[in-house]
Amino acid sequence: MKLSLRLAFEAFLLLGSQVLFFTLAWTFLIQSLVRDYASNSSDQEFLLTALPNTYRRKQRWWQGGALVQVVFALTLTWSCQLFELVIMEILGLLGQESRWYFWRLTLNAMLLLVIVIIPYYQCVLIIRNAGMSTKKALPIAVAIWVVYFYLFAKVGNNFPTQAHRSTEILSIEWGMSRVGVIGVTISAILSGFGAVNGPYSNLFFFLRQVTDTDIHLAEKKCMQTLEMIANKKKRVVLEEMRLQTLDPSASKVGGFVRKIFGTVSGKLAGDNLNDLRQELMALEGISRQLFLDIDDLYVEKSRLEHAKTWQGKYSNLMGYIFSVYCVYKLAMALINTIFRRTGSTDPITAIISKFISHTNMTIDVRFWSQQLSFFFVGLMIILSIRGLLQELSKFFRATSRHVSSNNVILFLAHLMGLYFLSSILMMRQSLPMEYRSIISDSLGALEFDFYHRWFDVIFLISGLVSMAFLYFVHKASGSSNVLAKDPAFEQMIEHQLSGADRQQDHSRYPSQSDEFQTPLSTESRYASSSGTQWRSRAP
């Protein structure tokens, strides 16, 4: 009876932690993702939530956004639960029976989400968004999911993921072997890019040298472009008025010759109007690019000013330390790939052992490896969750205008599940031998060394490709490459502001153009707006 009460109490604590994780995941989803989507998109599923129920489209409970949000929150909740159980294994909290029972239960739930529920639900929503009824969408989604599951099952056949081939398709080892390949690939690609982008973003050596003259020039060209847009819009309005006067059906007098003359003149005026509209669209695109250039210049200028502060110097120092670490990671990945090496001991124990061998100190290696492993594993978990959620927020904002919100949330949940499940496989090597049992015993049939070698190969390729990509981006984003300094753009500005178009408008329509005459010139407009605070992103 005592044992049953203890198990019930431990189960109550673990379920309580799940409720806490679910609440935090739901809060993150609503405040960080859904709110950004509602402000950046016209998607009915989010904007109509503020309207009464009578104005909403009637849907079944699984067709709206609520179930999608529950799936996302459950994926993040169970991912955090897995990491929590790893930390409990290190600290020895709760009973081993409770920890292992919830470990297997959570693993099965995560695999069910990643392999079955999320892909099938994604297919249903995509088909329904195409305009098909629910009755037809469900069987078609089943057929698509069967094809997906067949391809998913074939993934593990081409990789040495298992020590012995298991015939149990529904086993944890079978699912994790295939999820691990996809998840480790995604994790390695993101880690390789982060290892290169981290130093590039943190070191002030790579900052663009932006001066006040560059910003002043870009703002001046932007104001001149806005002046040109105003003139073009004025000419478009005048041409539309002229077309109305030349419409042969607008007048019932004038005879046959007047109608013929009006038809020819109207055709020429229509061609001129189309040309003006195309020029206007091009100028509006240029103005948007100029605004982005000004925004980037202000961001780089603020980063340069931040570099002169003590906090900036500290960030620069940490950037150099992080750069050394990233270079070390890339070098070790290269060595491991060439010599097919895999670590047999965790890094903490290896560092402590090397420290003891070079000193005369007597240290309890097991005790300190346990404490430091707990610290670094916890730090690794926090940084992994924090970094992934930040990237998910950026991706959600970038795609919020083009893709349905439900599809994006399901895609992010799928990506998150794959990433965290693969992180469990990769985390095993960072644990001391006595704490690997919770992972090894439940996934004992997997070839863990293969996943580490596969991670090193993809990590190295991703790092090299990211280096080349950031090199070309850095070359293309120099302060001399802004649109305001383009010679062709300078010539266009001089040509447009030469006054030929304005004089032509006065000669053709002296009365109409006076009505649209702007009170300020380009220089006076720029001078009056020189004190305007341009909106820029935080550094």
UniProtKB/TrEMBL annotation:
Residues passing through the membrane, by range: 12-34, 66-88, 100-125, 137-155, 317-339, 367-389, 409-431, 451-473
GO cellular component, one term: membrane
Keywords of the record: Membrane, Transmembrane, Transmembrane helix
Domain Golgi pH regulator conserved: 172-235
Biased composition (Polar residues): 509-539
Subcellular location: Membrane
Chain segments carrying region Disordered: 497-539
Domain Abscisic acid G-protein coupled receptor-like: 307-475
One Pfam family from the record: GPHR_N
InterPro entries on file: ABA_GPCR_dom, Golgi_pH-regulator_cons_dom, GPHR/GTG
Primary location class: membrane
Membrane topology (UniProt): Multi-pass membrane protein
The protein's name in its UniProt record: Golgi pH regulator
Species assigned in the record: Mortierella alpina
